[in-house]
Amino acid sequence: MDVTDAALARVAAEARACTRCADLPLGPRPTFCVSVTARLLIVSQAPGTRVHETGIPFNDASGDRLRDWLRMDRDTFYDERRVALVPMGLCYPGRLPNGGDAPPRAVCAPHWHPRLIPLLAGVRLTLLVGGHAQRFVLGPGAVAERVRAWRSHLPRHFPLPHPSWRTTGWERRNPWFGQEALPALREQVRAALQAPAGD
Questions:
Q1: Which pLDDT band holds residue 99 (cuts at 50, 70, 90)?
Q2: The three-state (H, E, C) secondary structure of 128-165, written as one string
Q3: pTM
Q4: Burial category of 82 from C-beta neighbours within 10 Å (exposed 0-12, middle 13-18, buried 19 and up)
Q5: How far apart are alpha carbons 17 and 32 in whole angstroms?
């Protein structure tokens, strides 16, 4: 294990043991996948209840839809040697009073992302899934406008809407997403995963 491997293993262990948000409704259960060899990084919102129960990121309907967008099978998606999965909130944040999941806890990403992400030395492309990830990395802006301007964020980032059922109507109203953005996304992801070490 080299220095970077050891550093990432140490920080990842600290993150998985985190109890900074011990008051979460279901308690803390940090859920993420990282590796120094991962070529693709997916930064998303926060785990849902099924992910909290299973401890597997994107192990739900949103994950199925994201994998469909990527045309990626589960074996590849969960191969942490190739794909890193780091949400803005590492734990399930609970529900809003009027329904729907609460946003990621504001203390999480500023504390853990600067410690984890720089150690993912192999990453060639980062998918910014949803508004929380996009605002954290790119600054203020509307998700729809960011996604429509996906070309301007390459080669480092590719912004995407959140793949929940709530965006199915948006996808129907914006056929360019399926016709232009998704084919480009798949090509960018394919290139990132095939990038040789040190490239």
A1: confident
A2: EECHHHHHHHHCCCCHHHHHHCHHHHCCCEEEECCCCH
A3: 0.95
A4: middle
A5: 12
What pLDDT is attached to residue 1? 60
161, 167 contact by CB (below 8 A) = yes
Q: Are 141 and 134 in contact (CB under 8 A)?
A: yes
The whole-angstrom separation of Cα 29 and Cα 42 is: 19
Contact assessment for residue 123 and residue 156, using Cβ atoms and an 8 Å cutoff: no
Whether 166 shows a pLDDT value over 90: the answer reads: no
d(CA 199, CA 196): 6
C-beta of residue 105 within 8 angstroms of C-beta of residue 89 = yes
Above 60 in pLDDT, residue 198?
no
pLDDT mean over 52-62? 93
Residue among 39, 196, 65 nearest 127 (CA): 39
